[in-house]
Amino acid sequence: MNTKEKIRRPFLKPLRDWSKRGACLVARHLPYACSTARRAPPLDCSAANRKTSVQSSNEQSNLHIWRWKGASRALRHRDYRLFLMGQIISLCGSWMQTVAQSWLVYRLTGSAVLLGMLGFVAQIPVFVLAPIAGMLADRFDRRRIVLFTQTTSMVLAFLLAALTLSATLKIWHLPVMAVILGAG
User: Fold this and answer.
1) Does the pLDDT of residue 10 top 80, yes or no?
2) Nearest Cα to 177, choosing from 135, 111, 121?
3) Percent helix, strand and coil across the chain, each rounded to 5?
4) CA-closest candidate to residue 179, choices 142, 128, 140, 138
5) In this structure, are residues 182 and 127 in contact, taking their beta carbons and an 8 Å threshold?
6) DSSP codes, 154-180
7) pLDDT for res 156
8) If both were cysteines, with which of 43, 67, 91, 125 could 182 make a disulfide (CB 3.0 to 4.6 Å apart)?
9) CB atoms within 10 A of CB 46
10) Torsion of CA 174, 153, 165, 103, to 10 degrees
11) What are phi and psi of 179, to 5 degrees?
């Protein structure tokens, strides 16, 4: 295998899965991509070969099924399924905690201003820490970062529940927890 084939190889797998028209669009910019595909038939990119009429309902349903098959490929991997389910549970928990904090602020104070301030304070870490978090995600193990942030969110949820159930919750606890939850 020569050097040119090694460079071209990353383009082979995506081209097999693309529709004919999409592959033709790529073939215009990468002329060697169509010629090196071993499993895919040669592509005819001429204007006469393209369909100009509306696709039949059968073809549209086949296209719909093909899109779902392509979208579900990642679900074949156990690690991705675990990550996806963990993220779904985590996001549901985070939103429940955000709603509970907002509800507690309004219930304890009756102030719409403090309710708005809580929402604002919760978003500050997102704007401030986003560039830094991107740099940290590139430099450190992403798995450990995810574990740390998820553990922090879990501890905050238990702390909020304990303070609420023990009736020792103060108003200043909620913005502090919102900032930490926003940073995590």
Assistant:
1) no
2) 121
3) 80, 0, 20
4) 128
5) no
6) HHHHHHHHHHHHTT---TTHHHHHHHH
7) 92
8) 125
9) 8
10) 50
11) -65, -45
